[in-house]
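Journal club side-thread
Mid-discussion, someone asked how the predicted structure for our own chain would compare to the paper's figures. Pasting it here so we can look after the session.
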Amino acid sequence: MPHPVEAVGACPISPVVDLVFSRWSTPILWVLKEHGRQRFVQIQRRLSGITPKVLTQRLRQLERDGLVTRSYHAEIPPRVEYEISDLGRTLGPVFAVLTEWSDTHFTRVETARHAYDTADRPLPA
């Protein structure tokens, strides 16, 4: 089986980007990193706009990938909790660097977007 990097060609981080930075993965990991062990409904409340179906799918995928652990407690009613795994915690420095980059540079991105959106460009033929 080819190494994931070989499968994507020239970009060695593509597998990681697909794994960690899909639509809801990063916010879920961030919630679990910042708030610790959470029940499903707690995660859902912290992530406005996510549907229960999508949250379930993303949590299952993150569990499959080893980034989240799921604990089932046989109580009445049953209790299920999710927590970022040790492997998931290793992403902390990545999130810290991205947060720092955002704090330092995102106003420049917004400025570039505004300049692009308001530029007088000829219409395509």
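Post-session note: The mean pLDDT is 89.
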